[in-house]
Design a protein that fits this description.
The protein contains six helices and 18 strands. The protein is α+β, with helices and mostly antiparallel strands. It has one domain: Clavaminate synthase-like (Double-stranded beta-helix, 4-Layer Sandwich), CATH 3.60.130.10. A hairpin with a 5-residue loop joins strand 6 and strand 7. The termini are far apart. Bound molecules: fe (ii) ion. The site of fe (ii) ion has 4 residues, from loops. The site of fe (ii) ion (FE2) has 4 residues, from loops.
């Protein structure tokens, strides 16, 4: 079995086959995966069968693991894994499950001082149809803008806040103070610049009122996220998806029955301060 890498779309995403991450891999394969991920920002490793412990070892190929902040989601025996189970969500007034997070295009944990370099999602249970995840190459989105617009964005600083949906005391305590990060961050491996923020975690842009800031950012995403820079991932059993949070944004399509029990295991890899 030899590692094979191929594009998932023109602009973002790479598919990796012929590799079994339940066992240690060699330095050449590790380097090839790392390089492909830095270049393509999203990697789908197909046909994996991973116990929680094996999943953690698989993700450690990409760096040290990062502790997660929503403690109610953590797997008891392996707290580095958050269990994203569509049934473990709040039930709304109409009796239907209300999905947590991921309602809009976002970058994971962009409010943190050191956001995770990578988010890994492993498909544990995928009942029924729907539940795709779309990814946008925010480096390509940025690069396509006119120079004057890029300069304007380069000068913007985001002042972050804790998402209202996060009610857990530990998360609030860890991020009580407003932090800031550049709206455009540079990828340390490729040097490419990307538009970077989590709309739910933005208090405002520096020098602008909150309402004006949100209008500005909403219009920005509307303007730059087009089919030309996106890839829609249809999950298959055994998929391990790694996303580079320094260059992509994503959205989870919630077009499925949440009560069916769609389960993903999420692991985070430590990151650096955005610059
Ligand atoms: Fe996300």
């Amino acid at each position: 079995m030899a590692l094979k890498l191929g594009p998932l779309s023109d602009v973002i995403g790479v598919e990796a086959t012929g590799i079994d991450l339940s066992r240690p891999i060699g330095p050449e394969d590790r380097a090839a995966l790392e390089a492909a991920l830095a270049d393509r920002l999203v990697m789908v490793v197909r046909d994996q069968t991973l116990s929680p412990a094996q999943l953690l070892d698989a993700v450690r190929n990409f760096g040290p693991l990062k502790a997660q902040h929503l403690t109610s989601l953590l797997l008891a025996e392996h707290p580095e894994i958050a269990v994203l189970d569509s049934r473990r969500t709040k039930v709304g007034a109409d009796g239907r499950h209300v999905a947590i997070g991921a309602r809009d295009w976002h970058t994971d944990h962009a409010h943190q001082e050191r956001p995770p370099n990578y988010t890994a999602l492993y498909a544990v249970s995928l009942p029924g149809a729907g539940g795709d995840t779309s990814f946008a190459n925010m480096q390509a989105a940025y690069a396509a803008l006119p120079a004057a617009r890029r300069s304007e964005l380069d000068a913007c600083t985001v002042i972050t806040k804790i998402d209202d949906r996060y009610s857990e005391a530990d998360d609030k305590a860890a991020h009580r103070e407003a932090r800031r990060h550049p709206l455009v961050r540079t990828h340390p491996v490729t040097g490419r610049k990307a538009i970077f923020f989590h709309p739910g975690m933005v208090e405002r842009l520096e020098g602008r009122e909150a309402e004006e800031s949100h209008t500005f950012l909403e219009a920005l995403l509307e303007n730059v996220i087009s089919p030309e820079v996106t890839y829609r991932h249809h999950w298959r059993p055994g998929d391990l998806v790694l996303m580079d949070n320094r260059g992509q944004m994503h959205v989870a399509h919630q077009d499925y029955d949440l009560s069916l029990g769609r389960v993903l295991h999420r692991v985070l890899v430590e990151g650096e301060r955005p610059y």
